[in-house]
Amino acid sequence: MEFVKKYLFKIIIFVLFVSWVSLILIDFLRARDMKKPLICISETTESKYNGVYYECKSLGYVYFEFAKEDDTKDYGFRAIFTPDPIEREYGNE
Q1: How far is it, in rounded angstroms, from Cα 42 to Cα 74?
Q2: Which of 93, 1, 4 is nearest to 49 (CA)?
Q3: Nearest CA among 68, 67, 69, 64 for reference residue 84
Q4: DSSP 84
Q5: Distance from CA of residue 56 to its chain's centroid?
Q6: Hey, where are the domains in the chain?
Q7: Which residues contact 59 (CB under 8 A, 6 or more apart)?
């Protein structure tokens, strides 16, 4: 019985990991079409750096969009613990 519990636990962990990686891949492909992620734990929209900044925090990563006043957009992904590239690029303006 102990063997079955260990095996079942490993299967559950593997399925959760594959699901999480699949979610990241799907959200990355959606971002290329300027679509929002499937799961957003928290969303913020702010006017800063002479544009509109949208951020969606998901499961371990952040999707962001930055619409500048000249109608160009920047978007991307980053890990939750990494610095914001938009702030690094436009923060001093």
Answers
A1: 20
A2: 93
A3: 64
A4: P
A5: 6
A6: 2-90
A7: 20, 23, 39, 41
- Number of Cβ within 10 Å of residue 73's Cβ equals 12
Helix (H, G, I), strand (E, B) or coil at 66: strand
Place of tokens 């990241």: 24
Alpha helices per DSSP H over the chain: 2-32, 85-90
User: What phi, psi does 50 have (nearest 5°)?
Assistant: 60, 45
Residue with tokens 């436009």: 90
Q: What is the pTM (predicted TM-score) of this model?
A: 0.72
Is pLDDT above 80 for 33? yes
CB environment 42-57: b (16+ within 10 A), e (fewer) = eeeeeeebebebbbbb
Q: 23: buried, middle or exposed (CB in 10 Å: 19+, 13-18, 0-12)? A: middle
State the CB neighbour count (10 A cutoff) for residue 36. Answer: 15
At 37-55, the pLDDT tens digits run 888 899 999 888 888 888 8
